[in-house]
């Protein structure tokens, strides 16, 4: 007898439909799998046989052929265990064929019949719904994420026997509870800008980065507060909307990083891989490509500390994804796509010893050593970072300010209160700038992602500002790309200040964030 059930395999963030056909015919007992099944799928034979036996079902005697269609699509992963087991039960008459009509399934079986979580259950649920499935059967640990998809019944089960019981009596099946989306949208408990003292230039750059989606490089000696500042960025960004949260959840689900029972990932990610990490860890890879750090930081912040310690080849891999906001991985003639709309924050010491430019400690590096150190931050990557900021160690004055109770003399001669502005106040300005961009820019994208043509059309550069920009191009030997980036930053500064046009002051301020142009040439 022939049985057929529906499941899916992952390709990037997508789940592609796979029809699992099980044929039980006369012959010597054997189980054969065909249809471009990878090693992890082939291993299903042993797991399924053992799981059936330990769950009290009969292992059919005869020749079994399992075909995974379409045959030209490579299948990987243990998620086919459950559909193969159910197909065998139908083919051997232990489960009525109509029980699986319109029901999709995915799940890994342990030898005793328990169901283990699979990667990408949310993507499978989305595919099942778009193909008109009635219900989806998944391991109970995956049920919360699968239940995020509207219009699909999700049955979470812990054991093969439970799966069979639910299929026999679907009326008793309890659909998985929909996770409370509102509850998962809380703000993360990262540091607050109110705790960052001094560093007015760095704070302002962080605000501009959050508003326009610009990448940021912080350069300063140890103890200048680069990491602390970077960790404040997430709090300045608006909460994820549902569509963004779903996409992010899908990335983490495909990576297998969702905690069992987790529904929506509601917080913007902050990822900070170590500088020894490989290219594959950063970009993603594997036989069924998994997302790397770049994609895991989607809609959030990727923080690369000690940027110049990363291997040059690894940093070069970042260039295209940063430009395009997505990563393509090629495996076995198939292409997987992962999104990575991230804000990159890089941090670096100014030189190998760390103290170049510090007023109190002396740098021990030679001129040549400093040049080599900078050479490691490949020029083209530096060229894609819009905001470059030099940070100094805060002086004793700034550190003492919160205890003095008076005015902080370092912050503009007593015009500002001594308590640094808190994250919530800055986030309001950022949100207002986001609204302005959403109304003006095509697709509501941030200024950092505007195409050259859109920038020319929407910039609104005042004549004086144009003259200043032209002058800077010549003096600083800016590349065409660098010049454009300067204008994008100036546009964001004007948005933060609620200026419809870009004036000379915005261009002048933008110029202060190009500290390292031409530095790598010496
Ligand atoms: Zn040095």
What are its keywords?
522 residues, 4-stranded mixed β-sheet, 5-stranded parallel β-sheet, elongated, Rossmann fold, binds zinc ion, alpha/beta, Ribosomal Protein S5, domain 2
Task: Give structural notes.
- The protein is of the alpha/beta class.
- It has 2 domains: 2-172, Ribosomal Protein S5, domain 2 (2-Layer Sandwich), CATH 3.30.230.10; 193-521, P-loop containing nucleotide triphosphate hydrolases (Rossmann fold).
- The protein has helices at residues 39-42, 44-54, 81-91, 121-130, 143-146, 160-168, 200-212, 226-231, 233-236, 242-254, 279-283, 293-296, 312-316, 319-324, 367-375, 379-382, 396-404, 423-440, 452-458, 463-475, 480-496, 504-511; strands at residues 2-11, 14-25, 30-34, 63-69, 103-105, 108-109, 115-116, 135-139, 153-157, 216-219, 270-271, 284-285, 290-291, 301-304, 326-331, 334-339, 343-348, 387-390.
- Helix 7 runs parallel beside helix 18 (423-440), helix 20 runs parallel beside helix 22 (504-511) and helix 21 (480-496) crosses helix 22.
- The longest helix is centred in the C-terminal third of the chain and has 18 residues, at 423-440.
- 46% of the residues are buried.
- It binds zinc ion.
- Zinc ion binds next to loops.
- Residues 351-353, 355-356, 363-365 line the site of zinc ion.
């Amino acid at each position: 007898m022939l049985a057929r059930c529906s499941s899916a395999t992952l390709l990037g963030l997508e789940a592609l439909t796979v029809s699992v056909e099980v044929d039980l015919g006369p012959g010597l007992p054997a189980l054969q799998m065909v249809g471009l099944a990878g090693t992890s799928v082939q291993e299903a034979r042993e797991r399924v046989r053992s799981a059936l036996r330990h769950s009290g079902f009969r292992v059919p005697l005869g020749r079994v052929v399992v075909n995974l269609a379409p045959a030209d699509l490579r299948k990987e992963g243990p998620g086919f265990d459950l559909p193969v087991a159910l197909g065998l039960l139908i083919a051997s008459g232990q489960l009525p064929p109509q029980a699986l009509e319109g029901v999709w399934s995915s799940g890994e079986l342990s030898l005793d019949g328990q169901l283990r979580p699979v990667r990408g259950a949310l993507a499978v649920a989305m595919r099942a719904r778009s193909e008109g499935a009635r219900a989806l059967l998944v391991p109970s640990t995956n049920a919360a994420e699968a239940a995020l998809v509207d219009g699909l019944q999700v049955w979470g089960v812990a054991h093969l026997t439970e799966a069979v019981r639910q299929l026999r009596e679907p009326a008793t099946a309890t659909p998985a509870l929909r996770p409370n989306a509102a509850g998962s949208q809380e703000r993360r408990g990262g540091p607050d800008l109110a705790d960052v003292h001094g560093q007015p230039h760095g704070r302002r750059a962080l605000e501009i980065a959050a508003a326009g989606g610009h990448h940021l490089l912080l350069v300063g000696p140890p103890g200048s507060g680069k990491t602390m500042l970077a960790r404040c960025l997430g709090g300045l960004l608006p909460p994820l909307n549902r569509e963004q949260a779903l996409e992010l959840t899908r990335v983490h689900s495909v990576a297998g990083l969702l905690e069992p029972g987790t529904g929506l990932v509601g917080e913007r990610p902050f990822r900070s891989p170590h500088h020894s990490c490989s290219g594959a860890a950063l970009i993603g890879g594997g036989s069924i490509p998994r997302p790397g750090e770049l994609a895991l930081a989607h809609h959030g912040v990727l923080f690369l500390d000690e940027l110049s310690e990363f291997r040059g080849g690894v940093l070069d891999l970042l260039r295209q994804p940063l430009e395009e906001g997505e990563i393509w991985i090629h495996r076995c003639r198939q292409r997987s796509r992962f999104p990575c709309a991230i804000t990159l924050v890089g941090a670096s010491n100014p030189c190998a010893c760390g103290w170049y430019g510090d007023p109190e400690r002396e740098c021990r590096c030679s001129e040549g050593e400093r040049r080599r150190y900078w050479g490691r931050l490949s020029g083209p990557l530096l060229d894609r970072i819009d905001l470059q900021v030099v940070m100094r160690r805060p002086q004793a004055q700034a550190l003492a300010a919160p205890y003095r109770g008076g005015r902080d003399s370092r912050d503009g001669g007593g015009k500002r209160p001594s308590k640094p502005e808190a994250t919530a106040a800055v986030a309001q300005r950022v949100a207002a700038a986001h609204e302005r961009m959403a109304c003006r820019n095509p697709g509501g994208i941030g200024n950092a992602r505007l195409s050259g043509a859109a920038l020319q059309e929407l910039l609104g550069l005042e004549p004086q500002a144009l003259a200043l920009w032209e002058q800077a191009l010549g003096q600083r030997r800016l590349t065409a790309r660098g010049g454009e980036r300067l204008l994008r930053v100036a546009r964001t500064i004007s948005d933060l200040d609620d200026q419809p046009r870009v004036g000379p002051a915005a261009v002048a301020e933008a110029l202060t964030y190009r500290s390292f142009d031409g530095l790598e040439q010496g």
